[in-house]
Structure formats: C-alpha cells, structure tokens
Write a structure and sequence with these properties.
mainly alpha; 73% helix; two-stranded antiparallel sheet; elongated; single chain; 95 residues
Length: 95
C-alpha cells in the first residue's frame, strides 16, 4: 500500500471512531475519551522500551553473570544446597 491509501484508511478510521463516539451514552463516551487520552502515554512508554530495553536487558544479564561467577569463586562453607559464608558466623549486635 502506498502513502495515499494509508492516509485515506487513517481518515476513514478516525471518522468511524467519531461516529461511534457520537452515538454512545455519556458515561461510555467519557470512558472512551479517557482511554484515548492515555494512548500517547502508552505509545511513548512502548517506544522507550523498544529503544532502551535491549541495552538494559544486556546490562542486567552481564551483572547476573558476574554475580554468579563471584558466588562460585567465593570460598564458602556449603551445607547441601545452602551456602554459609563466614561473615554470618561473627558476633551479632544486640538490639
């Protein structure tokens, strides 16, 4: 489809939406208006996620890998599946 068909389809969709809005009762019309006011915010959030989501996901995966490697290399006492680091063996502060 070329640009003129997309533009005409958009105009038809807007006209149909306006026609439907006119025949709705007042409460539903208000709800529809509130929903349409949120559309730019939702689109903005989705666009931000598309642009920055991969970078954050890659950084989170790298940090998780680093934490797992540190946990593997740390000299700790193991009791089955439970890791008991030496830091927990010292005296505790009284409350």
């Amino acid at each position: 489809m070329d640009l003129t068909r997309w533009a005409s389809a958009l105009v038809v969709a807007v006209c149909v939406l306006m026609l439907v809005r006119m025949v709705l009762p007042a409460k539903r019309r208000a709800r529809l208006d509130q929903g349409l006011k949120r559309v730019p915010q939702v689109l903005s959030r989705r666009w931000h996620t598309l642009r920055h989501g991969r970078r954050h996901r890659a950084a989170a995966e790298r940090l998780a890998r680093d934490a797992i490697e540190r946990a593997r290399k740390t000299n700790v006492e193991r009791d089955g599946n439970v890791i008991k680091p030496d830091a927990f063996k010292g005296p505790r502060k009284p409350h």
